[in-house]
Amino acid sequence: MLTEEENRILTQVGPGTPMGELLRRYWHPIASADDLARDSVRPVRLMGEDLTLFRTEAGDLGLVTDRCAHRGISLAYGIPQANGLRCAYHGWTYDTEGRVVEMPFEPACLPLRIRAYRAQELGGLIFAYMGPEPAPLLPRWDVLVRDDLKKTARFTALPCNWLQCMDNSLDPIHFEYLHGIYGNYVMKRAGKPPMVNPARHVRIDFDVFKYGIYKRRLVEGQSEDVTDWTMGTPILFPNILAGVAVDGSAGYQFRVPVDDSHALNINYNGAALPVGERGGLLTVKHEPLQYDDAGRIVATYITRQDEMAWVAQGPISDRTTEHLATSDKGILLYRKVIHENIERVARGEDPMGVIRDPAENFPMITIDRKSTLAAFKVGVTENLGGPGYYVDEAASRGPGA
Prior knowledge:
Elements: H1 4-11, H2 18-23, E1 27-32, H3 33-38, E2 41-46, E3 49-55, E4 61-65, E5 79-81, E6 84-86, E7 93-94, E8 100-102, E9 116-122, E10 125-129, H4 142-145, E11 149-158, H5 162-169, H6 174-189, E12 201-209, E13 212-219, H7 227-230, E14 233-236, E15 240-244, E16 250-259, E17 262-272, E18 282-286, H8 302-311, H9 329-346, H10 358-361, H11 373-383, H12 393-396
């Protein structure tokens, strides 16, 4: 178990906190291009900061603090212009770098500037960078970049700290119980057939690599040459789970730190294209949590069961009362890696997985083991419907969907 101070270090994400400073060295998805197409000005909250995301009439992305420097009205009511975002109250206009570029009724613009951050689009998602300059490159993860896939993204807001989501990713054993026993119990109560048929885990292990940690598992009845043991599933540091679904599709779960007690789970999936269908376009769905009459989350598919487990720990899990066991060694390793990278940031160094070399980033970053459809084909054939590998929302609705 942790002390209260140790838990605060791991969970507080605001400016100036150790974790907040670490997380600000990375790009985080905050919306989709489809969201901005429907409404070109959107309030967003990221790492405890209230911000306004906008796209100008010229097509440029801006991300600024949520208050006008004049009288403090929210810029979420702003009006996009060719040169920036115009405040609804008195017309002061800010460019994408936060500078006042127009100040009606004044003889000249005052040299004012509000806080602004970088925003960039990739794969149909809008990413934000809130750290120091020079900014690292936005990682071009393969499924984000490829245009030969049918892509979907599901956004779910969660009333819990982001770290609870990531602890789950470093915990292979939960698949057997949360998705197997509990998932099948949920389906039985609904009068539907079982969801999955997991075997007992016999071995788990973890390997640190350049971009994060691989989790590996071996279940009863499997030989040691199965891909879940030889290849594993990558967790891309600090907050992305890469996965493969039973239908052969692949993608990522981004666990975005909204503030200390809220997170955003973005399920980004790329599947093989039906014949004749155009690829590269992203279909976006916002899917809020649903509750039963007892106030419990309705969890009839795999990802929703994960989200239920995260939220059911409370807004911020009290790790001073936890009792970690042998099956939690991945969580212990992940916390060790977090602390090592907090120390790297404190020394003025780049943390794990920050990319600055364009040659590394272009045309895309391909993880050898489990992040591309091409790398998965053998593994998916071996493990199709099996117990020991990650299944994402697009492929797990199955019974009861």
